[in-house]
Amino acid sequence: MAVTGVDDLLKDFDKILKESMQAVQAVTVASAATLEAEMKTNILARQKTGIKWPSLPNRSSAAGESPATQSGKLARSIKAVLSADKTEAFVGIHNTAQVPYAVWLEYGTRGIEPRPFVWPALQKHKNKIIEDYKKALKI
After folding, report:
1. In whole angstroms, what is the distance from residue 135 CA to residue 119 CA?
2. How sure is the predictor about 46, in pLDDT bands with cuts at 50, 70 and 90?
3. Which of 27, 138, 23 lies closest to 89, judged by CA?
4. Phi, psi (5° rounding) for residue 59?
5. HSE (CB half, 13 Å, CA atoms) of 40?
6. Counting Cβ atoms within 10 Å, is residue 118 exposed (0-12), middle (13-18) or buried (19+)?
7. Do 92 and 38 form a contact (C-beta atoms < 8 A)?
8. I need a surface site. Which of 81, 88, 97, 101 has the fewest CB within 10 A?
């Protein structure tokens, strides 16, 4: 008995893999851009209710609010960086030496309550990102 259709089956598998990879890449790129924008928006566009210090240009953030922008350095340091194959992304602070206080703001310290900007962005978009991946992979 001869087995036929194996070549066609392998071509179909290759097509499915290629289409799935493209769909995952599209979701990864879009999700990374969304998270980067949300993190920056949390810092730059949200009204703050903390103290207005005379030496700072803007009102500070209160505990639990995202950080207030004073110099813009924190928001500018947020970047979305994609892996070479665009299936993974790192979104966040890429040069912590320039903004060492970023982690203190996100998580707080003994004397400073957290002013998170990363976690709220992830929580806001988490379900949509998961659904986009499921849709892309037809799960």
Report:
1. 24
2. confident
3. 27
4. -60, 140
5. 15
6. buried
7. no
8. 97
The pLDDT of residue 121: 97
Instruction: Return the DSSP state at 132.
Output: H
Helix, strand, or coil (residue 23): helix
Type and span of the H or E element at 56: none
pLDDT in tens, 72-111: 999 999 999 999 999 999 999 988 889 999 999 999 999 9
| pLDDT at residue 30 in the model | 98
Torsion over CA of 63, 69, 74 and 79, rounded to 10 degrees?
100
54: Cα separation from own chain's centroid: 33
pTM of the model: 0.88
Instruction: Output the furthest CA–CA distance in the chain (Å, rounded).
Output: 88
Q: Work out the number of other CB atoms within 10 angstroms of the CB of residue 36.
A: 18
